[in-house]
């Protein structure tokens, strides 16, 4: 995959191809959701024209629009829907991707070439901005600084997990502090709520028995892969994360046998990157062995990558529950 093909994938996932502010349904129990819709609309469309006023009446000056908006909230409250809606509503050259996708592209192309490809874009939309890797965060901060200076606008979401909703403002401040000169240019919007992925499904990942595996695979319409869990991990180590999207292209489901609890942090992070791509493409997961919501051990969940792992767990529960 060359630079143009890598960057050409930077668009909202298929399930958000038609996302709009009108199709986002705020939960009345959480007024911040409607407030977030209003903030996104204002960010994209600007303030409505003032009505009334005499010929010689001077209109008050509108506050200067900020070049960035940061949606901060827990998993499954609609941040990605709002980000995709913002992207669709924006005219001109624009890009949409996860933080991991952007950093992988910078790593694959080199910093200067990545800047050259993104420069001049009207909008850079970044889903799930990560705060757990200082190196990647600073690279992205520098990249965003150059792009904002060239006229681009930035929209981002956070990855605050449900258990840390009270820490949302702290997470947002971490993000803003890391991007130094951009700090006062971002509008931070808090979104409260519960994970929609857990409203209609059980809180554990679905597994199948070895005896039922073949029958389950046969029931899938479309292409399905079948691999051992450890074989998948070994193969992921040979592929750059920016190219994981090519591994799953055209698939309806992936079947994985012998899932076990991971003891290697690098394997765990590669799995997270793969799960993000599977979720974006809505590729079903069929698995045997340890339920995928228990693939990350307690020590990992207590470490610095907790937010990434919890997001992956939420997504694996949803993907194994598909039929």
From TrEMBL:
GO biological process, alphabetically ordered: cell division
Keywords (A to Z) from UniProt: ATP-binding, Cell cycle, Cell division, Nucleotide-binding
Superkingdom of the source species: Bacteria
GO molecular function: ATP binding; ATP hydrolysis activity
Pfam families, alphabetized: AFG1_ATPase
Cellular-component GO terms for this entry: cytoplasm
PANTHER family assigned to the protein according to its UniProt record, in alphabetical order: AFG1-LIKE ATPASE, ATPASE N2B
Protein name per Swiss-Prot or TrEMBL: Cell division protein ZapE
Species this chain originates from: Microcella putealis
The organism's taxonomic lineage, starting at the top: Bacteria, Bacillati, Actinomycetota, Actinomycetes, Micrococcales
């Amino acid at each position: 995959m060359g630079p143009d093909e890598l960057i050409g994938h930077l668009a909202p996932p298929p399930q958000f191809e038609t996302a709009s502010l009108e199709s986002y349904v705020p939960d009345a129990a959480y007024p911040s959701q409607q407030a977030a819709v209003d903030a996104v609309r204002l960010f994209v469309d600007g303030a409505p024209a003032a009505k009334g006023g005499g010929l010689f009446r001077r209109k008050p000056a509108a506050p200067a629009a900020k070049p960035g908006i940061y949606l901060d909230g827990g998993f499954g409250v609609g941040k990605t829907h709002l980000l995709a809606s913002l992207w669709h509503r924006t005219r001109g050259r624009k890009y949409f991707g996860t933080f991991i996708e952007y950093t992988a592209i910078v790593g694959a192309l080199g910093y200067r070439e990545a800047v050259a490809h993104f420069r001049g874009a009207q909008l850079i939309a970044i889903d799930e901005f990560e705060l757990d890797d200082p190196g990647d965060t600073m690279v992205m901060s520098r990249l965003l600084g150059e792009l904002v200076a060239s006229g681009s606008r930035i929209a981002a979401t956070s990855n605050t997990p449900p258990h840390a909703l009270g820490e949302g403002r702290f997470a947002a401040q971490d993000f803003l502090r890391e991007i130094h000169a951009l700090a006062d240019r971002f509008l931070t919007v808090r979104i409260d709520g519960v994970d929609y992925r857990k409203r209609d499904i059980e809180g554990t990942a679905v597994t199948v028995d070895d005896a039922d595996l073949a029958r389950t695979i046969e029931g899938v319409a479309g292409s399905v892969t079948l691999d051992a869990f450890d074989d998948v991990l070994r193969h992921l180590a040979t592929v750059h994360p920016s190219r994981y999207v090519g591994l799953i292209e055209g698939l309806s489901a992936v079947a994985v046998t012998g899932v076990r609890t991971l003891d290697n942090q690098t394997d765990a992070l590669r799995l997270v990157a793969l799960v993000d791509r599977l979720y974006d493409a809505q590729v079903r997961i069929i698995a045997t062995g340890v339920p995928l919501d228990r693939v990350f051990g307690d020590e990992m969940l207590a470490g610095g990558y907790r937010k990434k792992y919890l997001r992956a767990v939420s997504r694996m529960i949803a993907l194994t529950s598909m039929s």
